[in-house]
Amino acid sequence: MRVVVYGAGNVGKMVAYILSYREDVRVVAMVDDNRDMWGREVRGVPVVGGPDRLPALLADGVAGAICAIGDNKARGRLSEWMAQMGFEIINAIHPTAHISKDVRMGRGNIIGAGVTLYVDPVIGNNVYIDAGAIVTHDTVIGDNVLISSGATIGARIDIGRNVLVGLGASVMTPEWGQGARLRVGDNAVIGIGAVVIDDVPDNAVVVGVPAKVIRYQEP
Length: 219
Prior knowledge:
With about 220 residues, the protein is α/β, with parallel strands linked by helices.
């Protein structure tokens, strides 16, 4: 399948690298809102222009697409827009990622090198899990989430939509009893190295060990 990547920055470079391992996929073009990127190449892939080029690419037989943008809400919005346009939204999964055979995963996901997803995790759409992150059993990750490198999401965690989990952060329930769960609300931000052991409200920014709310942001 011929594929276009939306986003020619750092995330786009990583996605092109990950997809280079797939024999059934060939990235033939990138598009980007930044005019300075037009006409350049990223890992040998031409940046053919802005998103206005997408209909022509689709008409030319480029059937697959993935959005490679770090901003959670933008990634989700643009991915769904490309799906409505008629593209097949694909996943980019590095071959060194350990993916449990029972994982349930949506589309538009970016899974980096050395990521571990094991024992009944549920991964939504347009989720970006960066290198070395771990998601353990019976955890649910909502749409448009970014889990940064080295983060650990423990068992029975419910992560809402548009959540950002910072580098090296840990999220875990302190109760080991059967059925105990912890919730991270929609649009929450978990700071670098934070240790979350309590529910995080919607729109909250939490930092520290243990993590505490320092402010709320606009949804």
